Amino acid sequence: MTHRLLHSLLATAGPLLLAACNSGGPDAADPAAEVATSPRAQVTVGYVATDTLTDVLRLNALSAYPAKDLLRATTTGYVLAPTPVPGQVVRAGQTVFRLQTKESRTLHLDKLTGDPRLRFSGIIAVRAGRAGVLASVDKLAGDYVQDGEQLGVVYDKSRFGFVLDVPATQLRYVRPGQRCRLVLPDGRMLPGRVAELLPTADATLQTQRYTVRLTGSVPDLPENLAVQVELDRTAPRPVPTLPHTAVLTDETQTQFWVMRLLNDSTAVKVPVQRGPEQGERVEIKSPRFGPRDRILLTGNYGLDDTAAVQLRK
């Protein structure tokens, strides 16, 4: 009786134990199901568009006042008050400094005559030779100066411009009279033109020097201000473009590629040859994409070839 009961229990529990062993426990997962539920990159797509772009050459330049009027003492004596201040606008022929000869101060000739305009008063006027802005004041009231000593510097604002150094490899794109654009550090863009070719070159950097003048109103800018000069290397032309976020590159920026949507869930890597960038668009020189090719615009960074993706709604 006992043996029959034990045999019956084993016959009943055996299939249950076998099923439990084959189940692998609650933590076991189906590999196919795991792949199906793996997270996918959320991406957005766009299409290649045709835009009118211009190949732009961007170079650096410095602001300069090439015409400077040095105000010098015309006699030995003392500087009289009031003295001008830097930044003061002066007219051509305006008295900027007044000097008193040392003989006049010793003999008090200006007080004896009562009229400093008289020739024998010993008061000498130093006038500006041209209109401009007083850039510096080197002497103050009461200073003793020698004949010919510098008192200040007047910048001729009408001759204000920029000095542009062009690399020898880019000389064919720059010529006198060419129109250009100057981008200031604060983002303002001013129209200008290439004025003169200067007969000087940097032997170390191999650059040719040009001057650039503004064609519109001249704002108040200091000397030696670094700006960017934009010159068009080509005429505007229609080219296929993509947003710059769609074009990826390596660390050395020698290889470029985009991620093209193969189907609704797979993106493939496509090497491209990029052209110049203008604004938010980049020219795609090759390959030639069709109007239905979907290119990843966002979510494309760091994806491998044939990456699993999901279109963002």
TrEMBL record:
<protein>
    <submittedName>
        <fullName>HlyD family secretion protein</fullName>
    </submittedName>
</protein>
<feature type="signal peptide">
    <location>
        <begin position="1"/>
        <end position="19"/>
    </location>
</feature>
<keyword id="KW-0732">Signal</keyword>
